[in-house]
Amino acid sequence: MNVARLAVRPSVLARRAEGTPNVASRQQPLKSPSRFLQLPHGSPVADCCPRFFSTSSALCCENRRTPASADTSGTKTETSQDRYSTALRLNKEWAAQTAKEHPDLFPTLANGQQPQILWLGCSDSRCPETSLLGLKPGDVFVHRNIANIMHPGDLSSGAVIEFAVQHLRVQHVVVCGHTSCGGVAAAMGNKQLGILDPWLLPLRQVRQRNLSLLQSLPPEEAATKLVELNVREGMDVVKQKGVVLNAILERGLQVHGLIYDVGSGVLRELDTEDSEEAIKARLTAFATEA
Asked: Biased-composition ranges for Polar residues (predicted)?
C-alpha cells in the first residue's frame, strides 16, 4: 500500500525552531501549571481535559460529558447499558452491510492478515485509525497507549513492533499523535497522577529538554508542539530497534510521523526524512546481527 493514501495537509500552526536546553543542567525551574497553562474557556485543550488545570488528578474529563441522571430537559438520555446494547445492534448491521459491499472480505480475513501499515497511536477514543484512514479490517496492525509514548523497554509495544515488522512484514510504520491530547496536557503540568507518573516520564523529559521553546509559545501552540516532539521522539525509539533497522536496510521499511487534528479529521505528515549520515550512524550504534 502506498502511504500516499494518508492524505495530509500542511499544519495551520507555524513551526518555531529554537535551540534545545542542556538536558543535564535542568537549572531553569518549571513554571507552575497555573502560570504556564492558563488556557481560555473554549480552547480545545482546556475543554478536553480541564481537570489537569484544576485541583483534580483524573486523567480525562471525557469532554465534560453530562451524566444521564443530570438530564433535566425532559428528554430521555441514553444510559450506559443502552449504549452497549446499541453497539451490539450496530455491529450486526455493520457486518451485514460490509459483507454485502465486500463479499470476499470476511472469508479472506478468516484465513489470515496481510496489513501493510503498523500504526502506533494514542488510546484516545477520537482517534480510530482504520476509520480515519478510510481503510478496512485487515489493513492496519495496531498498538495504542496513553499519549502514544514509545518506551524503549516496553514489552507490549516492542512485541507488536517485532511481530509486525519481522513476521507480517509491514511496509510502513506510523507513529501518530493528535491534538487536544489528555496525556500531553498531563505532561505539561506537574500534578501527581499515580501510576501514570512513570508512564508519562519520557514525555515530561521531552518537555524539559524543550522547555524554552514551549514556554515561548501560547499554551495551545505549546501543547501541539509537544505532541509533535513526542511523535519525533517515538520515531527515534522505533528506529533504534534492531528488527526495524534491519528491515530499513534490507527491504526499505519506512517510518512516518503523523499528527491527527481531532477538530478537522485531517492528518498532517511531519518532515522526518533521515540523511544518509544519520541512517549510517543509527545502524552503527543500534543494528544487531542474528
From this structure: 22-31
Which residues of the chain are modeled with pLDDT < 70?
A: 1-77, 275-276, 279-280, 283, 287-290
According to the model, what pLDDT value does residue 33 have? 39
The verdict on whether residue 49 carries a ligand-binding annotation is: no
Catalytic site includes residue 176: no
Catalytic residue among 181, 207, 256, 268: 181
> Can you give the pLDDT at residue 58?
39
**Marked catalytic residue, from 60, 122, 127, 176:** 122
End-to-end CA distance of the chain: 29
Q: With contact defined as beta carbons under 8 Å apart, do 120 and 149 qualify?
A: no
* Residue of 47, 61, 126, 274 marked active site: 126
What integer pLDDT is reported at residue 36 of this predicted model?
41
Q: What is the DSSP string of 74-102?
A: SSPPPPHHHHHHHHHHHHHHHHHHHHHH-
Gyration radius (Cα) of the chain, Å: 21
Active site residue 126: yes
Torsion, CA 170, CA 178, CA 148, CA 61, rounded to 10: -140
Instruction: Cell numbers for 57, please give them.
Output: 488528578
Residue 270's pLDDT is what?
A: 96
Instruction: Output the pTM of the full model.
Output: 0.73
Domain residue ranges in the chain? 80-112, 113-290
pLDDT for 286 equals 74
Catalytic residue check, 61: no
Check whether 139 is labelled as a binding-site residue: no
Q: Which CATH number fits domain 113-290: 3.40.50.300, 3.40.1050.10, 3.30.420.10, 3.40.50.720?
A: 3.40.1050.10
Cell numbers for 2: 502506498
Establish whether 122 is an annotated binding residue: yes
For the question of residue 178 being annotated catalytic, the response is yes
